Amino acid sequence: MTTRWLTPEEQRAWRAYIAASLLLEDALDRQLQQEAGMSHLYYSVLAGLSEAPDRSMRMTDLAESLKITRSRLTYVVARLEKDGALRREGCASDKRGSVAVLTDEGMALLERTAPGHVEMVRRAVFDHLGPEQVEQLERICTGITEALQGDGAEAVTSDDLPWRRRSCSSG
Amino acid sequence: MTTRWLTPEEQRAWRAYIAASLLLEDALDRQLQQEAGMSHLYYSVLAGLSEAPDRSMRMTDLAESLKITRSRLTYVVARLEKDGALRREGCASDKRGSVAVLTDEGMALLERTAPGHVEMVRRAVFDHLGPEQVEQLERICTGITEALQGDGAEAVTSDDLPWRRRSCSSG
Questions:
Q1: In terms of CATH architecture, what is A13-164?
Q2: FRET label pair with B9: which of A2, A121, A161, B63, CA 20 to 30 Å apart?
């Protein structure tokens, strides 16, 4: 098969994306580490739970919503549980599952941490985008997500999405 | 200071970005691991060197171009050197520096690996974007990078960019 190399325009966009995503990940992690001793992923777990009914989610659903492997989530949840920010409970409707519940302490931690995090997201991203660009960013990213996890035959990796994996070397 | 929370539109765009970037990182790593036993970062080191004059770069410049810490780069370069894909040489003009040079073996590895990687990038990203969206993606990402590493007073983290750090816990 002939390789469909990127055009010069696509190459420029791809490099800009890779640079921005690495810098942004680093900046978000640094800000949260300095202010609250946690990485962006830990923050995302707390934020995800805070918006769920009863501030609780099944581990599998939480992994899917965060787009990570269950083994990686298990690791993060264990540390947050040790810190008292959440607790795990058995799932009544599914013996295989287990449920993560945000504690009051975890909610308070999230509320203390959110303003600094949001300020960083604003300064790094949204302060520089017009309303049209905000919409463009959402459309482009939604397209990428659908390509990678869509249920259709065209999905690139639907058999092998992170949260469906039994084990994972990068977990 | 009053927190400048994200608007609903910004929240949607931000969540779409986080989901897409996590899925994409995972898909790129998995494809490259399966085909060539290396993560996307290792591939990026080889690709970066392949485009430099004499296929060589100073470690500091390489870290800056990849937007990562020097300690993380040192780790990656050590493994690629062990595999024979590159070698390190002293830098004639700067005794503190050191230079990474892509070997013929490394170039051959890159050439074998590039078609599968580019196909994944196309299927995940560019097959779903029109020419206008490619340009939008580049503009948005360039704006984020400039916000995070610009030299002006408005730069968010210019004192603390990854490649300028002496040591780094996430290195």
A1: Orthogonal Bundle (1.10)
A2: A161
